[in-house]
UniProtKB/TrEMBL annotation:
Its EC number is 6.3.5.2. Homodimer. It comes from Orrella marina. The active site is at C81, H176, E178. Keywords: ATP-binding, Glutamine amidotransferase, GMP biosynthesis, Ligase, Nucleotide-binding, Purine biosynthesis. PANTHER family: GMP SYNTHASE [GLUTAMINE-HYDROLYZING] (PTHR11922:SF2), GMP SYNTHASE-RELATED (PTHR11922). HAMAP family: GMP_synthase. Coiled coil: none annotated. This is GMP synthase [glutamine-hydrolyzing]. The gene is guaA. The lineage of its organism: Bacteria, Pseudomonadati, Pseudomonadota, Betaproteobacteria, Burkholderiales. Residues 203-395 form the GMPS ATP-PPase domain. Catalyzes the synthesis of GMP from XMP. It catalyses: XMP + L-glutamine + ATP + H2O = GMP + L-glutamate + AMP + diphosphate + 2 H(+). One of its GO terms (cellular component) is cytosol. Pathway: Purine metabolism; GMP biosynthesis; GMP from XMP (L-Gln route): step 1/1.
Length: 527
Protein backbone atom coordinates (compact mmCIF):
# COMPACT_ATOMS: atom_id res chain seq x y z
CA UNK A 1 0.00 0.00 0.00
CA UNK A 2 0.92 3.61 -0.58
CA UNK A 3 0.23 6.37 1.92
CA UNK A 4 -0.56 9.84 0.58
CA UNK A 5 -0.15 12.62 3.10
CA UNK A 6 -2.28 15.66 2.40
CA UNK A 7 -0.94 19.16 2.98
CA UNK A 8 -3.97 20.89 1.52
CA UNK A 9 -3.47 21.14 -2.22
CA UNK A 10 -6.62 21.30 -4.35
CA UNK A 11 -5.38 18.35 -6.38
CA UNK A 12 -4.33 15.87 -3.69
CA UNK A 13 -7.17 13.51 -4.59
CA UNK A 14 -5.79 13.35 -8.08
CA UNK A 15 -2.66 11.72 -6.69
CA UNK A 16 -4.86 9.03 -5.15
CA UNK A 17 -6.67 8.61 -8.41
CA UNK A 18 -3.42 8.17 -10.38
CA UNK A 19 -2.10 5.66 -7.85
CA UNK A 20 -5.34 3.70 -8.15
CA UNK A 21 -4.99 3.89 -11.93
CA UNK A 22 -1.58 2.30 -11.55
CA UNK A 23 -3.40 -0.61 -9.89
CA UNK A 24 -2.04 0.14 -6.43
CA UNK A 25 -4.00 0.49 -3.21
CA UNK A 26 -3.55 3.82 -1.46
CA UNK A 27 -4.90 5.74 1.49
CA UNK A 28 -5.02 9.47 1.94
CA UNK A 29 -4.46 10.95 5.39
CA UNK A 30 -3.85 14.42 6.84
CA UNK A 31 -0.20 15.48 6.69
CA UNK A 32 0.42 15.49 10.46
CA UNK A 33 0.15 11.77 11.14
CA UNK A 34 1.77 10.36 14.29
CA UNK A 35 4.78 8.08 14.50
CA UNK A 36 2.54 5.31 15.87
CA UNK A 37 0.24 5.66 12.88
CA UNK A 38 3.19 5.29 10.51
CA UNK A 39 4.42 2.24 12.36
CA UNK A 40 0.97 0.69 12.13
CA UNK A 41 0.95 1.38 8.39
CA UNK A 42 4.29 -0.42 8.18
CA UNK A 43 2.77 -3.52 9.72
CA UNK A 44 -0.06 -3.28 7.18
CA UNK A 45 2.43 -3.43 4.32
CA UNK A 46 3.35 0.21 3.67
CA UNK A 47 5.58 0.38 0.59
CA UNK A 48 5.90 4.11 -0.02
CA UNK A 49 4.75 7.60 0.92
CA UNK A 50 3.74 10.53 -1.27
CA UNK A 51 3.68 14.06 0.17
CA UNK A 52 1.15 16.33 -1.54
CA UNK A 53 1.36 19.98 -2.49
CA UNK A 54 -0.17 22.70 -0.34
CA UNK A 55 -2.00 25.97 -0.84
CA UNK A 56 0.25 27.40 1.87
CA UNK A 57 3.90 28.36 1.71
CA UNK A 58 6.54 26.31 3.51
CA UNK A 59 7.06 29.45 5.66
CA UNK A 60 3.47 29.81 6.67
CA UNK A 61 3.11 28.96 10.36
CA UNK A 62 -0.28 27.41 9.53
CA UNK A 63 1.25 25.00 7.04
CA UNK A 64 1.39 21.44 8.38
CA UNK A 65 4.92 20.19 8.94
CA UNK A 66 5.94 16.83 7.58
CA UNK A 67 6.57 14.55 10.59
CA UNK A 68 10.22 13.50 10.64
CA UNK A 69 9.19 9.88 11.15
CA UNK A 70 8.06 9.88 7.51
CA UNK A 71 11.73 9.77 6.54
CA UNK A 72 12.56 7.02 9.01
CA UNK A 73 10.28 4.23 7.81
CA UNK A 74 12.76 2.78 5.35
CA UNK A 75 10.31 3.24 2.46
CA UNK A 76 10.62 5.51 -0.61
CA UNK A 77 9.12 8.98 -0.31
CA UNK A 78 8.01 11.23 -3.17
CA UNK A 79 7.44 14.90 -2.39
CA UNK A 80 5.34 16.90 -4.81
CA UNK A 81 5.65 20.72 -4.89
CA UNK A 82 5.23 21.71 -1.23
CA UNK A 83 6.02 18.09 -0.40
CA UNK A 84 9.39 18.44 -2.11
CA UNK A 85 10.11 21.74 -0.38
CA UNK A 86 9.22 20.32 3.01
CA UNK A 87 11.43 17.33 2.33
CA UNK A 88 14.32 19.61 1.36
CA UNK A 89 13.87 21.80 4.42
CA UNK A 90 13.68 18.89 6.85
CA UNK A 91 16.64 17.04 5.43
CA UNK A 92 19.00 20.02 5.55
CA UNK A 93 18.45 21.82 2.25
CA UNK A 94 17.12 25.31 1.73
CA UNK A 95 13.88 26.76 0.43
CA UNK A 96 13.36 30.39 -0.59
CA UNK A 97 10.74 32.62 -2.11
CA UNK A 98 11.06 32.52 -5.87
CA UNK A 99 11.47 35.84 -7.69
CA UNK A 100 8.31 35.17 -9.57
CA UNK A 101 5.49 32.81 -9.00
CA UNK A 102 5.49 30.13 -11.61
CA UNK A 103 2.05 29.04 -12.60
CA UNK A 104 0.91 26.83 -15.43
CA UNK A 105 2.65 25.13 -18.30
CA UNK A 106 6.41 24.66 -18.15
CA UNK A 107 9.07 22.64 -19.87
CA UNK A 108 11.36 20.79 -17.52
CA UNK A 109 14.74 19.47 -18.44
CA UNK A 110 15.16 16.05 -16.88
CA UNK A 111 18.75 15.73 -15.69
CA UNK A 112 20.89 13.08 -14.18
CA UNK A 113 20.07 9.46 -14.43
CA UNK A 114 17.50 8.87 -11.80
CA UNK A 115 15.26 5.85 -11.80
CA UNK A 116 12.15 8.04 -11.48
CA UNK A 117 12.57 9.93 -14.74
CA UNK A 118 14.85 7.63 -16.72
CA UNK A 119 13.75 7.51 -20.36
CA UNK A 120 10.57 9.41 -19.61
CA UNK A 121 10.28 12.59 -21.68
CA UNK A 122 7.98 14.31 -24.13
CA UNK A 123 10.67 15.28 -26.60
CA UNK A 124 14.43 15.69 -26.87
CA UNK A 125 16.39 18.89 -27.43
CA UNK A 126 18.87 19.13 -30.29
CA UNK A 127 21.66 18.17 -27.87
CA UNK A 128 19.75 15.11 -26.73
CA UNK A 129 18.32 16.20 -23.36
CA UNK A 130 14.92 14.90 -22.40
CA UNK A 131 12.22 17.53 -21.87
CA UNK A 132 9.00 16.99 -19.92
CA UNK A 133 5.90 19.11 -20.49
CA UNK A 134 4.57 19.76 -17.03
CA UNK A 135 2.24 21.86 -14.92
CA UNK A 136 3.74 24.02 -12.19
CA UNK A 137 2.21 26.12 -9.47
CA UNK A 138 4.53 27.50 -6.84
CA UNK A 139 5.85 30.64 -5.19
CA UNK A 140 8.69 29.03 -3.21
CA UNK A 141 11.40 26.78 -4.44
CA UNK A 142 14.28 24.66 -3.25
CA UNK A 143 17.49 26.67 -3.50
CA UNK A 144 19.96 24.23 -1.95
CA UNK A 145 19.87 20.47 -2.15
CA UNK A 146 20.02 18.54 1.11
CA UNK A 147 23.04 16.28 1.63
CA UNK A 148 22.92 13.10 -0.39
CA UNK A 149 20.56 14.52 -3.00
CA UNK A 150 21.34 15.14 -6.65
CA UNK A 151 19.62 17.36 -9.13
CA UNK A 152 16.95 15.55 -11.13
CA UNK A 153 15.19 18.28 -13.12
CA UNK A 154 15.29 22.01 -13.77
CA UNK A 155 13.59 24.82 -15.64
CA UNK A 156 14.91 28.23 -16.59
CA UNK A 157 13.32 29.92 -13.59
CA UNK A 158 13.48 26.98 -11.18
CA UNK A 159 16.97 25.50 -11.22
CA UNK A 160 16.02 22.77 -8.74
CA UNK A 161 12.73 21.43 -10.12
CA UNK A 162 13.47 17.87 -9.10
CA UNK A 163 15.84 16.14 -6.69
CA UNK A 164 16.66 12.60 -5.71
CA UNK A 165 18.53 10.67 -3.05
CA UNK A 166 18.32 7.28 -4.65
CA UNK A 167 20.07 5.47 -1.82
CA UNK A 168 17.23 6.28 0.53
CA UNK A 169 14.59 6.31 -2.20
CA UNK A 170 13.70 9.97 -1.63
CA UNK A 171 12.45 11.95 -4.62
CA UNK A 172 11.05 15.43 -5.00
CA UNK A 173 9.42 17.14 -7.97
CA UNK A 174 8.42 20.78 -8.06
CA UNK A 175 5.87 20.13 -10.81
CA UNK A 176 2.58 18.27 -10.41
CA UNK A 177 2.68 14.78 -11.96
CA UNK A 178 -0.90 14.10 -10.77
CA UNK A 179 -2.57 16.57 -13.16
CA UNK A 180 -3.20 15.58 -16.77
CA UNK A 181 -1.45 18.74 -18.04
CA UNK A 182 1.76 17.00 -17.01
CA UNK A 183 1.66 14.70 -20.00
CA UNK A 184 3.86 11.95 -18.58
CA UNK A 185 2.52 12.36 -15.04
CA UNK A 186 0.79 8.98 -14.88
CA UNK A 187 3.91 7.33 -16.20
CA UNK A 188 6.06 8.98 -13.52
CA UNK A 189 3.70 8.10 -10.65
CA UNK A 190 3.31 4.54 -11.92
CA UNK A 191 7.06 4.19 -11.97
CA UNK A 192 7.31 5.48 -8.42
CA UNK A 193 4.69 3.19 -6.92
CA UNK A 194 5.39 0.08 -8.98
CA UNK A 195 9.11 0.10 -9.68
CA UNK A 196 10.56 2.22 -6.90
CA UNK A 197 8.20 1.19 -4.11
CA UNK A 198 7.71 -2.30 -5.53
CA UNK A 199 3.91 -2.44 -5.41
CA UNK A 200 2.39 -5.12 -7.64
CA UNK A 201 -0.18 -3.13 -9.55
CA UNK A 202 -2.89 -5.78 -9.36
CA UNK A 203 -5.33 -3.87 -7.18
CA UNK A 204 -8.67 -3.22 -8.88
CA UNK A 205 -12.32 -2.23 -8.45
CA UNK A 206 -13.52 -5.54 -6.92
CA UNK A 207 -10.79 -5.10 -4.30
CA UNK A 208 -12.06 -1.60 -3.72
CA UNK A 209 -15.57 -2.95 -3.16
CA UNK A 210 -14.29 -5.25 -0.42
CA UNK A 211 -12.31 -2.50 1.26
CA UNK A 212 -15.21 -0.07 1.08
CA UNK A 213 -17.55 -2.67 2.55
CA UNK A 214 -15.20 -3.27 5.46
CA UNK A 215 -14.94 0.46 6.09
CA UNK A 216 -18.73 0.94 6.03
CA UNK A 217 -19.24 -1.95 8.45
CA UNK A 218 -16.65 -0.55 10.84
CA UNK A 219 -18.15 2.91 10.62
CA UNK A 220 -21.82 2.12 11.21
CA UNK A 221 -21.65 -1.02 13.33
CA UNK A 222 -25.21 -2.12 14.14
CA UNK A 223 -26.78 1.30 13.41
CA UNK A 224 -29.46 1.94 10.87
CA UNK A 225 -28.73 4.08 7.79
CA UNK A 226 -31.09 6.05 5.55
CA UNK A 227 -30.34 7.20 2.03
CA UNK A 228 -32.18 9.46 -0.39
CA UNK A 229 -32.26 7.49 -3.62
CA UNK A 230 -32.77 9.62 -6.72
CA UNK A 231 -32.11 7.10 -9.46
CA UNK A 232 -29.03 9.09 -10.50
CA UNK A 233 -25.66 7.37 -10.79
CA UNK A 234 -24.17 8.55 -7.51
CA UNK A 235 -26.99 7.76 -5.12
CA UNK A 236 -27.62 4.46 -6.93
CA UNK A 237 -24.02 3.33 -6.58
CA UNK A 238 -23.92 4.46 -2.95
CA UNK A 239 -27.12 2.51 -2.25
CA UNK A 240 -25.82 -0.64 -3.93
CA UNK A 241 -22.52 -0.44 -2.07
CA UNK A 242 -24.01 0.24 1.35
CA UNK A 243 -26.62 -2.46 0.84
CA UNK A 244 -23.89 -4.93 0.04
CA UNK A 245 -22.13 -3.93 3.25
CA UNK A 246 -25.00 -3.84 5.72
CA UNK A 247 -28.07 -5.30 3.97
CA UNK A 248 -31.28 -4.55 5.85
CA UNK A 249 -29.66 -1.93 8.05
CA UNK A 250 -30.11 0.37 5.04
CA UNK A 251 -33.42 1.98 4.12
CA UNK A 252 -33.66 4.12 1.00
CA UNK A 253 -36.23 6.84 0.55
CA UNK A 254 -37.14 7.50 -3.05
CA UNK A 255 -39.13 10.71 -3.44
CA UNK A 256 -41.06 10.87 -6.70
CA UNK A 257 -41.89 14.53 -7.27
CA UNK A 258 -43.81 13.78 -10.44
CA UNK A 259 -41.05 15.45 -12.45
CA UNK A 260 -39.08 12.33 -13.30
CA UNK A 261 -38.48 10.83 -16.73
CA UNK A 262 -40.75 8.26 -18.36
CA UNK A 263 -40.91 5.02 -16.34
CA UNK A 264 -38.09 6.22 -14.09
CA UNK A 265 -39.86 5.42 -10.84
CA UNK A 266 -40.68 1.89 -11.98
CA UNK A 267 -37.06 1.38 -13.10
CA UNK A 268 -35.66 2.49 -9.76
CA UNK A 269 -38.08 0.30 -7.85
CA UNK A 270 -37.51 -2.73 -10.02
CA UNK A 271 -33.71 -2.46 -9.94
CA UNK A 272 -33.36 -1.83 -6.23
CA UNK A 273 -36.39 -3.24 -4.49
CA UNK A 274 -37.20 -6.20 -6.72
CA UNK A 275 -33.84 -7.32 -8.07
CA UNK A 276 -31.46 -6.36 -5.31
CA UNK A 277 -33.76 -6.68 -2.35
CA UNK A 278 -32.95 -3.22 -0.99
CA UNK A 279 -35.47 -1.65 1.42
CA UNK A 280 -36.87 1.24 -0.60
CA UNK A 281 -39.71 3.44 0.51
CA UNK A 282 -41.34 4.88 -2.60
CA UNK A 283 -43.06 8.14 -1.81
CA UNK A 284 -45.31 9.41 -4.56
CA UNK A 285 -45.49 13.10 -3.73
CA UNK A 286 -46.62 14.24 -7.18
CA UNK A 287 -49.77 15.96 -5.93
CA UNK A 288 -47.92 17.83 -3.20
CA UNK A 289 -45.27 19.13 -5.62
CA UNK A 290 -47.78 20.04 -8.31
CA UNK A 291 -49.97 21.99 -5.95
CA UNK A 292 -46.99 23.91 -4.53
CA UNK A 293 -45.75 24.69 -8.03
CA UNK A 294 -49.16 25.73 -9.30
CA UNK A 295 -48.91 29.04 -11.18
CA UNK A 296 -45.25 29.64 -10.24
CA UNK A 297 -43.28 30.78 -13.29
CA UNK A 298 -39.98 32.14 -11.97
CA UNK A 299 -37.17 29.57 -12.44
CA UNK A 300 -35.44 30.30 -9.15
CA UNK A 301 -38.74 30.26 -7.25
CA UNK A 302 -39.53 26.88 -8.81
CA UNK A 303 -36.13 25.49 -7.87
CA UNK A 304 -36.51 26.69 -4.28
CA UNK A 305 -39.99 25.19 -3.94
CA UNK A 306 -38.86 21.83 -5.31
CA UNK A 307 -35.82 21.84 -3.02
CA UNK A 308 -37.86 22.78 0.04
CA UNK A 309 -40.64 20.27 -0.59
CA UNK A 310 -38.09 17.58 -1.22
CA UNK A 311 -36.48 18.15 2.15
CA UNK A 312 -39.87 18.21 3.82
CA UNK A 313 -40.99 14.91 2.31
CA UNK A 314 -37.66 13.28 2.97
CA UNK A 315 -37.64 14.44 6.57
CA UNK A 316 -41.17 13.25 7.21
CA UNK A 317 -40.33 9.82 5.81
CA UNK A 318 -37.03 9.45 7.59
CA UNK A 319 -38.62 10.43 10.90
CA UNK A 320 -40.70 7.27 10.57
CA UNK A 321 -37.61 5.09 10.38
CA UNK A 322 -36.83 4.13 13.94
CA UNK A 323 -33.30 4.46 15.29
CA UNK A 324 -31.68 5.73 12.11
CA UNK A 325 -28.30 7.15 13.08
CA UNK A 326 -26.74 7.76 9.68
CA UNK A 327 -27.66 9.66 6.57
CA UNK A 328 -25.88 8.22 3.55
CA UNK A 329 -25.17 10.42 0.56
CA UNK A 330 -23.69 9.81 -2.85
CA UNK A 331 -21.30 12.76 -2.54
CA UNK A 332 -18.41 12.27 -4.96
CA UNK A 333 -15.05 13.99 -5.01
CA UNK A 334 -15.91 16.80 -7.46
CA UNK A 335 -18.83 17.74 -5.14
CA UNK A 336 -16.38 18.02 -2.25
CA UNK A 337 -14.16 20.36 -4.28
CA UNK A 338 -17.14 22.34 -5.57
CA UNK A 339 -18.59 22.97 -2.13
CA UNK A 340 -15.14 23.92 -0.83
CA UNK A 341 -15.02 26.48 -3.65
CA UNK A 342 -18.53 27.63 -2.84
CA UNK A 343 -17.47 28.27 0.78
CA UNK A 344 -14.86 30.79 -0.29
CA UNK A 345 -17.78 32.78 -1.68
CA UNK A 346 -15.96 33.46 -4.93
CA UNK A 347 -18.34 31.61 -7.20
CA UNK A 348 -21.36 33.53 -8.43
CA UNK A 349 -24.63 31.65 -8.10
CA UNK A 350 -26.03 31.31 -11.59
CA UNK A 351 -28.61 28.71 -10.59
CA UNK A 352 -29.37 27.35 -7.19
CA UNK A 353 -28.61 23.69 -7.60
CA UNK A 354 -30.77 21.36 -5.67
CA UNK A 355 -29.50 17.93 -4.83
CA UNK A 356 -30.61 15.11 -2.67
CA UNK A 357 -27.44 16.13 -0.84
CA UNK A 358 -28.87 19.46 0.30
CA UNK A 359 -30.48 18.17 3.48
CA UNK A 360 -30.47 20.18 6.68
CA UNK A 361 -28.41 19.49 9.80
CA UNK A 362 -31.58 19.31 11.90
CA UNK A 363 -31.96 15.67 10.92
CA UNK A 364 -29.37 15.01 13.59
CA UNK A 365 -27.79 12.19 11.66
CA UNK A 366 -24.16 11.38 11.09
CA UNK A 367 -23.04 11.52 7.47
CA UNK A 368 -21.96 8.41 5.60
CA UNK A 369 -20.35 9.29 2.28
CA UNK A 370 -18.64 6.21 0.87
CA UNK A 371 -17.95 7.73 -2.58
CA UNK A 372 -16.28 10.88 -1.30
CA UNK A 373 -12.89 10.04 -2.70
CA UNK A 374 -13.98 8.85 -6.12
CA UNK A 375 -14.27 10.61 -9.46
CA UNK A 376 -17.30 10.10 -11.68
CA UNK A 377 -15.73 7.53 -13.97
CA UNK A 378 -14.52 5.57 -10.93
CA UNK A 379 -18.04 5.67 -9.47
CA UNK A 380 -19.30 4.21 -12.74
CA UNK A 381 -16.72 1.43 -12.64
CA UNK A 382 -17.72 0.74 -9.06
CA UNK A 383 -21.39 0.57 -10.09
CA UNK A 384 -20.56 -2.02 -12.74
CA UNK A 385 -18.46 -4.01 -10.25
CA UNK A 386 -21.49 -3.98 -7.93
CA UNK A 387 -23.67 -5.41 -10.66
CA UNK A 388 -25.80 -2.37 -11.47
CA UNK A 389 -27.16 -2.30 -15.05
CA UNK A 390 -24.87 -0.40 -17.46
CA UNK A 391 -27.88 1.60 -18.69
CA UNK A 392 -28.21 3.04 -15.19
CA UNK A 393 -24.50 3.50 -14.57
CA UNK A 394 -23.79 5.21 -17.89
CA UNK A 395 -26.88 7.37 -17.86
CA UNK A 396 -26.71 11.07 -18.64
CA UNK A 397 -26.99 13.28 -15.55
CA UNK A 398 -30.44 14.47 -14.57
CA UNK A 399 -30.95 17.57 -12.44
CA UNK A 400 -32.51 17.29 -8.97
CA UNK A 401 -35.50 19.53 -9.88
CA UNK A 402 -36.09 17.25 -12.86
CA UNK A 403 -38.62 18.26 -15.47
CA UNK A 404 -39.50 21.20 -13.22
CA UNK A 405 -36.71 23.17 -14.90
CA UNK A 406 -37.42 21.70 -18.34
CA UNK A 407 -41.01 22.88 -18.48
CA UNK A 408 -40.49 26.59 -18.92
CA UNK A 409 -42.71 28.75 -16.77
CA UNK A 410 -45.67 27.24 -14.96
CA UNK A 411 -45.56 23.49 -14.42
CA UNK A 412 -48.54 21.18 -14.62
CA UNK A 413 -49.12 17.47 -14.91
CA UNK A 414 -50.30 17.55 -18.51
CA UNK A 415 -47.18 19.40 -19.71
CA UNK A 416 -45.03 17.00 -17.70
CA UNK A 417 -46.70 13.99 -19.36
CA UNK A 418 -46.15 15.41 -22.85
CA UNK A 419 -42.59 16.30 -22.11
CA UNK A 420 -41.86 12.83 -20.68
CA UNK A 421 -43.06 11.23 -23.91
CA UNK A 422 -41.12 13.60 -26.14
CA UNK A 423 -37.98 13.13 -24.06
CA UNK A 424 -38.27 9.34 -24.19
CA UNK A 425 -38.57 9.42 -27.99
CA UNK A 426 -35.48 11.62 -28.26
CA UNK A 427 -33.42 9.40 -25.96
CA UNK A 428 -34.66 6.26 -27.69
CA UNK A 429 -33.53 7.50 -31.09
CA UNK A 430 -30.18 8.69 -29.73
CA UNK A 431 -29.56 5.22 -28.33
CA UNK A 432 -30.52 3.53 -31.59
CA UNK A 433 -28.57 5.74 -34.01
CA UNK A 434 -24.91 4.92 -34.44
CA UNK A 435 -22.19 7.13 -35.80
CA UNK A 436 -20.39 5.44 -38.67
CA UNK A 437 -16.96 6.83 -37.90
CA UNK A 438 -16.77 5.87 -34.23
CA UNK A 439 -19.30 3.05 -34.12
CA UNK A 440 -20.79 4.64 -31.00
CA UNK A 441 -24.41 5.53 -30.42
CA UNK A 442 -25.33 9.20 -30.35
CA UNK A 443 -26.41 8.70 -26.75
CA UNK A 444 -22.82 7.80 -25.89
CA UNK A 445 -21.47 10.58 -28.09
CA UNK A 446 -23.40 13.22 -26.14
CA UNK A 447 -22.88 14.10 -22.50
CA UNK A 448 -26.43 15.14 -21.85
CA UNK A 449 -29.53 15.22 -24.05
CA UNK A 450 -33.13 15.99 -23.26
CA UNK A 451 -36.31 17.67 -24.43
CA UNK A 452 -37.58 21.01 -23.13
CA UNK A 453 -41.22 22.06 -23.10
CA UNK A 454 -41.86 25.59 -24.36
CA UNK A 455 -45.21 27.05 -23.35
CA UNK A 456 -45.52 28.75 -26.71
CA UNK A 457 -48.23 27.88 -29.20
CA UNK A 458 -47.73 27.89 -32.92
CA UNK A 459 -49.86 27.05 -35.90
CA UNK A 460 -49.46 23.84 -37.85
CA UNK A 461 -51.33 21.68 -40.30
CA UNK A 462 -52.09 18.02 -39.80
CA UNK A 463 -54.10 16.06 -42.32
CA UNK A 464 -56.63 18.59 -43.50
CA UNK A 465 -56.84 20.48 -40.27
CA UNK A 466 -55.19 23.41 -38.64
CA UNK A 467 -53.39 22.78 -35.33
CA UNK A 468 -52.44 25.27 -32.67
CA UNK A 469 -50.15 23.50 -30.22
CA UNK A 470 -46.98 23.75 -28.14
CA UNK A 471 -43.28 23.56 -29.03
CA UNK A 472 -40.61 21.15 -27.82
CA UNK A 473 -36.93 22.06 -28.02
CA UNK A 474 -34.27 19.38 -28.21
CA UNK A 475 -31.04 19.97 -26.33
CA UNK A 476 -27.93 17.80 -26.74
CA UNK A 477 -24.50 18.84 -25.54
CA UNK A 478 -20.97 17.57 -25.48
CA UNK A 479 -18.77 18.46 -22.54
CA UNK A 480 -16.21 16.96 -20.23
CA UNK A 481 -16.92 19.00 -17.12
CA UNK A 482 -20.39 20.55 -17.63
CA UNK A 483 -18.86 23.97 -16.93
CA UNK A 484 -18.56 24.66 -20.62
CA UNK A 485 -20.37 22.74 -23.31
CA UNK A 486 -20.94 22.74 -27.04
CA UNK A 487 -24.15 21.75 -28.79
CA UNK A 488 -23.88 18.33 -30.36
CA UNK A 489 -23.72 18.12 -34.17
CA UNK A 490 -26.48 15.52 -34.38
CA UNK A 491 -27.05 14.08 -37.87
CA UNK A 492 -29.97 15.64 -39.76
CA UNK A 493 -31.57 12.21 -40.31
CA UNK A 494 -31.68 11.65 -36.61
CA UNK A 495 -33.21 15.08 -35.94
CA UNK A 496 -35.76 14.49 -38.70
CA UNK A 497 -36.82 11.16 -37.23
CA UNK A 498 -37.10 12.51 -33.69
CA UNK A 499 -39.09 15.51 -34.85
CA UNK A 500 -41.54 13.48 -36.90
CA UNK A 501 -42.02 10.92 -34.12
CA UNK A 502 -42.64 13.57 -31.46
CA UNK A 503 -45.12 15.50 -33.60
CA UNK A 504 -46.98 12.34 -34.58
CA UNK A 505 -46.90 10.56 -31.26
CA UNK A 506 -47.17 13.27 -28.64
CA UNK A 507 -50.45 15.01 -28.26
CA UNK A 508 -50.15 18.73 -27.65
CA UNK A 509 -46.91 19.18 -29.64
CA UNK A 510 -46.86 20.30 -33.27
CA UNK A 511 -43.38 21.81 -33.60
CA UNK A 512 -39.85 20.69 -32.68
CA UNK A 513 -36.77 22.90 -32.70
CA UNK A 514 -33.08 22.13 -32.05
CA UNK A 515 -31.09 24.25 -29.60
CA UNK A 516 -27.80 25.39 -31.15
CA UNK A 517 -26.43 27.43 -28.23
CA UNK A 518 -23.23 26.64 -26.44
CA UNK A 519 -22.42 27.19 -22.78
CA UNK A 520 -21.46 29.90 -22.08
CA UNK A 521 -23.31 32.12 -22.83
CA UNK A 522 -26.30 29.75 -22.61
CA UNK A 523 -26.52 27.18 -19.82
CA UNK A 524 -27.22 23.51 -20.44
CA UNK A 525 -30.65 23.54 -18.82
CA UNK A 526 -33.06 26.21 -19.98
CA UNK A 527 -33.96 27.35 -16.47
P1 LIG B 1 -26.40 24.27 -16.27
O1 LIG B 1 -27.82 24.38 -16.70
O2 LIG B 1 -26.10 25.11 -15.05
O3 LIG B 1 -26.21 22.78 -15.83
O4 LIG B 1 -25.44 24.52 -17.40
C1 LIG B 1 -24.97 22.15 -15.61
C2 LIG B 1 -25.24 20.71 -15.19
O5 LIG B 1 -25.87 20.70 -13.90
C3 LIG B 1 -27.12 20.06 -13.97
N1 LIG B 1 -28.03 20.76 -13.08
C4 LIG B 1 -28.38 20.31 -11.86
N2 LIG B 1 -28.06 19.19 -11.22
N3 LIG B 1 -29.39 19.85 -9.41
C5 LIG B 1 -28.60 18.94 -10.01
O6 LIG B 1 -28.35 17.90 -9.41
C6 LIG B 1 -29.74 21.00 -10.00
O7 LIG B 1 -30.48 21.81 -9.43
C7 LIG B 1 -29.22 21.25 -11.29
N4 LIG B 1 -29.36 22.27 -12.17
C8 LIG B 1 -28.60 21.96 -13.26
C9 LIG B 1 -27.53 20.13 -15.42
O8 LIG B 1 -28.46 19.11 -15.75
C10 LIG B 1 -26.20 19.98 -16.11
O9 LIG B 1 -25.80 18.63 -16.14
Amino acid sequence: RILILDYGSQVTQLIARRVREAGVYCELHPGDVSTEFLQEQKTLGLKGIILSGSHLSAYDPQALKVPHAVFEQGVPVLGICYGMQAMAQQLGGEVSHADHREFGYAEVRARGHTHLLRDIDDFKTADGHGILKVWMSHGDQVTRLPDGFKLMASTASCPIAGMADEKRGFYGVQFHPEVTHTLKGQHILTRFVREICGCHGDWNMPDYVQEAITRIREQVGQDHVILGLSGGVDSSVAAALIHKAIGDQLTCVFVDHGLLRLNEAQQVMSTFAEHMGVNVIHVDATEQFMSKLDGVTDPEAKRKIIGREFVEVFQAESAKIQDARWLAQGTIYPDVIESAGAKTGKAVAIKSHHNVGGLPDTLNLKLLEPLRELFKDEVRKLGIALGLPPSMVYRHPFPGPGLGVRILGAVNKEFADWLRQADAIFIDELRMTFDEKTGKSWYDLTSQAFAVFLPVKSVGVMGDGRTYEYVVALRAVQTSDFMTAGWAPLPYDLLAKVSSRIINEVKGINRVVYDVSSKPPATIEWE
